[in-house]
Design brief:
Number of helices: 6
Structural class: alpha+beta
Distance between the termini: 81 Å
Strand order of the largest sheet: 2-3-7-6
Largest sheet: 4 strands, antiparallel
Number of domains: 2
Oligomer: single chain
Shape: globular
Number of strands: 10
Length: 248
Amino acid sequence: MSRASRGFRIFGKTLKILFFMLIFSVIFFLFWRIFSSDNPKSMEQLSINDKLAAAYEQDGNDLDMFNQNLDMITRADHNYGYFAVTDSVFIPAANQIQITFRYNNSTITHLVEDKGLDETPSRDDDLFDVTLLLATDLTPENTEDNLGNDPASVKMTRVHASSVTADKKNVYNYRRLVFDLDEVGVSLEELLEDGELLAVYTDVYYVGDVNYDEPTYGTLCIYDHLAKTYDVELSGADKRALRKYGKD
């Protein structure tokens, strides 16, 4: 075998090894992104308060909860991939909605650029004002006047979180938010029964620039009356926490 052909064989083997290493690296990276983007355990469990505990005491493991599989990642040109709602649950008996809100570390970098900040905030800071906006039908007998959110036919009600739990995992930052609708005099159960709940939006503003009359920094629809709903069951951890609540 000549030196030239031997050199080509070594070169070919080297290319093959590099190719397989590249494929392995891509696969490893994809799996890492998939598993690293899973919610932390603290964000998977329900946040329990008196209202939820009372609903569980009444209904037990049959507590009615649901969500919708909507596309809950911002995709507008000015905020593509900035924010996501990775989990949402509607609990009519507790008159409550809970969500898990997530944003990437890169979102903080974009925030500095978008808002012209002098320095990069810490990822531990509460950087975003997150509220729910409920769109309810004032004229349920007429289903053709809901487009455009005309105040004469659609009422908008903003709900602030009654509690917020923070966590982080790898490059992601999380907030678990509880919205008690009693605080705005709205009954989720009645709105659903009467077919008056049209939509629920998660609105995001930068905490240093909150003006609800101005466009949001990001908006995600977590409920659409035309979309299918899916039952959510209490996890074992949720059941144990609910049974234990108030007994310590």
